Amino acid sequence: MRPLEGNFxxxxxxxxxxxxxEPLVPLRRLESYFIFWAHLVYRIRKxxxxxxxxxxxxxxxxxxxxAVLSHPDAERIVGPVGCTFSNMxxxxxxxxxxxxxxxxxxxPWSYPGRVALLxxxxxxxxxxxxxxxxxxxxxxxxAGSTANLHRLVTIAPPDIAVVTRIGAAHLELxxxxxxxxxxxSALVRAVSPSGLVxxxxxxxxxxxxxxxxxxxxxxxxxxxxxxxxxxTRAVCxxxxxxxxxxxxxxxxxxxxxxxxxxxxxxxxxxxxxTYNANPLSMKLGLDTLASTxxxxxxxxxxxxxxxxxxxxxxRYHEELGDYARSRSDLLIGVGELSRHYAPDHWFDSSDxxxxxxxxxxxxxxxxxxxxxxxxxxxxVVTKLRExxxxxxxxVPLLV
Length: 399
Hints:
This protein is α/β, with parallel strands linked by helices. Helices cover about 50% and strands about 15% of the residues. The chain has helices at about 5-20, 25-45, 60-70, 70-80, 90-100, 110-130, 150-155, 170-175, 175-190, 205-210, 225-240, 245-250, 280-290, 315-325, 350-355, 380-395, and strands spanning about 50-55, 80-85, 135-140, 160-165, 195-200, 215-220, 260-265, 270-275, 300-305, 330-335, 345, 365-370. The strands form two sheets. It has a six-stranded parallel beta sheet, with helices on both faces. The chain has a six-stranded mixed beta sheet with strand order 7-8-12-9-10-11, with helices on both faces. A hairpin with a 2-residue loop joins strand 7 (about 260-265) and strand 8 (about 270-275). Helix 3 packs across helix 11 (about 225-240), helix 7 (about 150-155) runs parallel beside helix 9 and helix 15 (about 350-355) runs parallel beside helix 16 (about 380-395). The longest helix has 20 residues, at about 110-130.
């Protein structure tokens, strides 16, 4: 086929799709259709909904609550448990969770994919309506360009609402911390008087959530994993799960990858907290670095940029840099905005950092790796694993 002929066919295909097929099944209409079926399944099956949000710790808390409630002894009391898979915490992700998609789901862009989804949803919903379905759903509720908490609570209103802690996050969209509070408060407002609201303490907005709650409020303390554990205990106590069962479930729980995960590698300890970042979670990661490092152990903070921080992004990065220097012995920045940390060493990308990081390591370092998802800091952790493996292989065997 001649190049001009092929180009003509491509343009013709685009024209047909954009001007004739696209109006028939537009993405926005397909999203509403998808959410309709999810809400229908919710309305008929009526699972007990535990909605979890916050600026930090919501993924770990969601996974922990679901894991403990899924313990065999707990499940005999509350019934089968379903929960958010991966980071599916936006409008489509929550609907996909209710429709029991157990993989990261996105509305398809291709027209054949849209038609296939359009046809497959009714029989899928029917199977869920007449087949096995969880009695309890633990749902992570995010906020951002594709996640609107005011919409999420209409899809599946919570019986228990959890707000971990509130801090600077998504400011590019919500502009101010008051805007973040207003968005997150939708989850609290949605709980009926017969439900429960659980609030993590240690931030300035607890009283604002209390004021809008119609349900009884429980406040719990702690930070990081401790806060998640205390929230889990409060949820389970409300649902009638004995403390001994909760303790057993917590003991066997493993944090999701990239959420303050401790890796004991050859010649170093690595704290993998690469899932995402904002000032609040960054400070928690740095506190964890400081408390994890043994006496005399060098503390390395490898920090990527924080995204979606709005107009005051530079100030947030500068303040975080000051905090990082108080919690680490060597500060390494990754990404353009991380220049504002005033780091000891700077790299323009995670790949560049991974290529050079071995030169900055010493034996027995304690290393924190953290940054927003867009910084792709997991590549640095992968490199640290490779370095540790090489070190292990180079050690001579003792006979």
